[in-house]
Amino acid sequence: MVAAQVSVNNLNLVINNKHILSDICFSVASGQFVGLIGPNGAGKSSLLRCLYRFQTPVSGSILIDQTDINQFDRLSYARTVAAVLQEIPSQFNLAVFDVVAMGITPHKRLFSSISLRDRQSIQEALQKVGLTHKQQQSYESLSGGEKQRVMIARAIVQRPSLLLMDEPTSHLDVKYQIEIMALAKSLGVTVIASFHDLNLASALCDSILVLDQGELLADGTPQNVMTTEMLSTVFGVNAEVSLQSSSNGEQIPYIRYQYQLSETDLNLQVSRGRECE
């Protein structure tokens, strides 16, 4: 039996006396692409923050390659884990090329210069995210979507074995949403990424974790997790789920939402509106 690359055991996170995550347990095999879904406030970002050591749980453990993440020194952890966040940093007064080059830092000695091989790696990463033509442009002058693509290029040159992505496509148009997530899947590393687009998660993920109110409600393949019952219970929406064949013949769940509210829903909205008057 192959040991899991990531193992989360009985994880609990409390902030300001409020339970954010409750008894979270799951494991991820090496090379898996795992989607993290749930409504706003479900705890997705908080779970990822625990994984990249921004927040400290009150109990439980997180193991990477069977080692507790607290046992990694800062440099070793940066060589192992990269994170692309939904909050785009704005403090860089640097050219795009230099921001991407920051990803090489964990692999360099202090004060060492960038080698020709490093420059090639940076160029390749910029090409993958479609920003080669803007490498000398100021990072601050870019659009939100372009800044996010720079952050993904930086993660690529960091060469992690685990890539954490917190809704990285939130600032991107549809084309780059698909391309960036497909790129992450093609990198050959383990990926745990939170999604808003459930159809995109179904198409790309090997497995999906469903969070709601800080609890893990489901953990399985898209075919097993993406059901009409789950969508109704967790997201409060009416939808039909059908299986469609991908280009390689794999059966992928496709969600078709029902946008027309029922008479009960309409009456409830009207009632709430009157209460606010």
UniProtKB/TrEMBL annotation:
Pfam families: ABC_tran (PF00005). InterPro entries: AAA+_ATPase (IPR003593), ABC_transporter-like_ATP-bd (IPR003439), ABC_transporter-like_CS (IPR017871), P-loop_NTPase (IPR027417). It comes from the Bacteria. The keyword Transport applies. Residues 6-238 form the ABC transporter domain. GO terms for molecular function: ATP binding; ATP hydrolysis activity. Keywords: ATP-binding, Nucleotide-binding, Transport. The keyword rRNA-binding does not apply. Belongs to the ABC transporter superfamily. This is ABC transporter domain-containing protein.
